Amino acid sequence: MQKVGMILKRIGKVLLWIVLVLVVLIGALVFWLRSEPAQVTECDQGLRLFEDADGAECIPEMPTDVFSVSVSSSQLYLALGFPMVVRVRAFEDFVVGDIPNLEPRMEAVHAGVPEVEINRETLNLELLLQFEPEVIVSEFPTSEVNKLLGTIAPVVLLSSEDSWKSYSLSAGDMIGSRAEAEALLQQFDERVALLRAQFDDPSEITVSVVRIHPENKQLQLPSSFSGQIIEAVGFSIPEAQRELSETVPDQSVYLISEERIDLIDGDHIIIVSGTTNEILAEQGSSLDALVEDFNNDPLYQTLEGAQNGNVSAVGTYWRLAGIYSAHAILDDLFIHVAGVDPNEVAPNPLPYE
Hints:
The chain is of the alpha/beta class. It contains 14 helices and 13 strands. A hairpin with a 4-residue loop joins β9 and β10.
């Protein structure tokens, strides 16, 4: 019996040492994830230093095997006809089919390329490793995620705080196609000019953009993706929104309470789906149903835009920054604000096949 006790005691000590070792290893991993990475200042031959939101990364001169977990850069690469090493059709609350013309373009550019679904909370590193990317493009603000991705390949972090245009230029520069990215943005600017020309003075028109969810409503402020495009066209936002944006300059969205519905009012009110059609369907709802609830609410019937019948429903692409989304927003503004057919005045120049 004494012998059995001694054996159990030894086993207990071994288990204790194992637990202590695991604690140390886990602590070291947590420290590594939280620690600031060393700044890269020079690269080996065949690589170039590329500045990103985290500092700089050494990447191939002309990378060909790129994996993107960035909605914005993915749109640019599809417009350029640049296939990624793996295609991502769905990413959390983003589905390719929710952005007009993007799905057929993806099918054309990525013929034969494997497809995966990505979720930033459950990144499958083993799966990503199989695709052997040379560079990973990320827009995750979470450094821990990027460090995990960095165990597979250099991670280029493109900041969502930048304008969507500068973001797109950086994505193009990364694959050695900055000039081509600039040409795409020039096409966008030309369409903006044609839309502006539909009005004597677009600044006399106020446009309010509201992101609507089943549980709440959020105002899209000027620094948001759609806000940048409205400003580029020259439309104004209501004075109450302007004053609000000055008090919260770092915010792109603002949760709206019933006490501040005055923030929503404008000559035109654009209702943006807060999530994908698939998720709304899973919740037993739809964009049409959300807009109907909006129109039937007595509070919102006091708004000038609602009284004049200028409430328009648009898809989730209004908040998914990128070149395809930007042109789709222009299409909506041609239709709902200018009252003209964009195909007759300024056709969308992006390829979709």
